[in-house]
């Protein structure tokens, strides 16, 4: 199913239901946290215009004006064919972010980046986060410099309080796999998804259960 097969309102409802974006808690610097779960993003079912509208109406206003915030992006389990909207879409979404919101963003914690995503950002990151005029380039360059790769959840807890953010169960599982197979970080081992048993009856989202540790 593609974005052309469901209405815009249904696409917005889908983003809301999947909790791709969630503002909750604060990091150790007292900043609001915008959590983004890459695996939850239905790239094939949501158009760029709908995503921009959703962010502009439901996410950016809740971040507040002149209030610093941080982003925790969970890349665990992301599949390019299912969750990646494309380079041009990423740039369009980025350019739609109000300047004030960009300036208030102080840190981006990229959890479980993997080799491919590191290479992608090293190659296209400055293209995505730079523009035509000098002021824009300065702002975007500083944003690119706020990116922090976090290879393990233990390192995330150095910056974010554990009981302030909800982490999906599969992220913990992926973290455990990396502990036992560290070469996965460098793309030298196969990174097949963990096999889950069949979900319980009437619980279609059991594989996305949350675990919040105190």
UniProtKB/TrEMBL annotation:
<feature type="domain" description="CRAL-TRIO">
    <location>
        <begin position="30"/>
        <end position="177"/>
    </location>
</feature>
<dbReference type="Pfam" id="PF13716">
    <property type="entry name" value="CRAL_TRIO_2"/>
</dbReference>
<dbReference type="InterPro" id="IPR001251">
    <property type="entry name" value="CRAL-TRIO_dom"/>
</dbReference>
<dbReference type="InterPro" id="IPR036865">
    <property type="entry name" value="CRAL-TRIO_dom_sf"/>
</dbReference>
<protein>
    <recommendedName>
        <fullName>CRAL-TRIO domain-containing protein</fullName>
    </recommendedName>
</protein>
